[in-house]
Amino acid sequence: MKRFLEGTLQWKTAACFMFTGSVIVTMLVFSCFGQQYISIMTLLSLLIISALGTFIQFLAFTDTIIKNLRYSLRLLLFAIPFLLLLTCCAYFFAWFPTEEFGSWAIFVGIFVGIFCIMTLAFELYYRYMGKKYDGLLGQYRKQQEKQK
């Protein structure tokens, strides 16, 4: 039970961060297009995406339920359900004219582009941090050898 509650608290915190970030980005985009408010329905759609998207992220990127899965498969395990979630929200909350195929192609293209950029950014960040910590570990080992 304790593990469930810890997981729930982590999920809640991550969902709050995602919701706050998505509201800020939405606010910036809306203000660029001259819109001065965010509707309740838009906020509701962002809340749904944040709550369910964080849960999908938890399933895909932790070893809690799915163990020993390659990172590339974890990316697919996240991307496909998350795109489905975004597509459902886009359709039901009428984010754009859904009758035109071009709108959907642009929507999916934007998702794939942002997903690739974010994946690349995380990969570069973790490689950089890995090298940094490898260097610090090497320095620590040298210090330990000098002390002996």
Question: Can you walk me through this structure?
Answer:
With 148 residues, the chain is an all-alpha fold. The protein is 82% helix and 0% strand. The protein is built from four helices and no strands. The protein has helices at 2-32, 40-61, 71-92, 101-147. Helix 1 crosses helix 2 and helix 2 (40-61) runs antiparallel to helix 3 (71-92). It is elongated and about 70 Å long. The termini are far apart.
Q: Would you summarize the structure shown here?
A:
By secondary structure, the protein is an all-alpha fold. It has four helices and no strands.
* Largest sheet report: none
Structural class category? mainly alpha
Residue-averaged pLDDT, rounded?
A: 89
The poorly predicted ranges are none
Q: Could you tell me how far the N terminus lies from the C terminus, measured between alpha carbons in angstroms? A: 46 Å
Identify the overall geometry.
elongated
Share of β-strand residues: under 5%
Strands, helices and their partners?
Blueprint: H1 2-32, H2 40-61, H3 71-92, H4 101-147
Helix pairs in contact: 1-2, 2-3
Key features?
148 residues; mainly alpha
